[in-house]
Amino acid sequence: MTTGGPWTNDPHAAVYHAPDEEDRMLTPEEIKTLREFTEMTQVQMAQLFRVLPAEVVAWENGTLEPDEEQMERLERLRNSGNKKTRFKFN
Known about the structure:
CATH superfamily: lambda repressor-like DNA-binding domains
Largest sheet: none
Oligomer: single chain
CATH architecture: Orthogonal Bundle
Order of helices and strands: HHHH
Number of strands: 0
Strand content: under 5%
CATH class: Mainly Alpha
Structural class: mainly alpha
């Protein structure tokens, strides 16, 4: 876990990792925690990722894994460290 940063004392901090930590796919629980940390609803996250809300639900319950591009975007969102985000992907 990262020391310092805006999420240090936040209960959702476990979703963040140090930049030098080995990259890995986010677990369904981490995806949900990330969404909650960024104060997004499942519908808002779906809009951000340009997927159906049912896909975000499936990511969070483990019945569907994000594809490679979606996972990369989840990592970018996680690494941004922003609590409430107006994050946009270019």
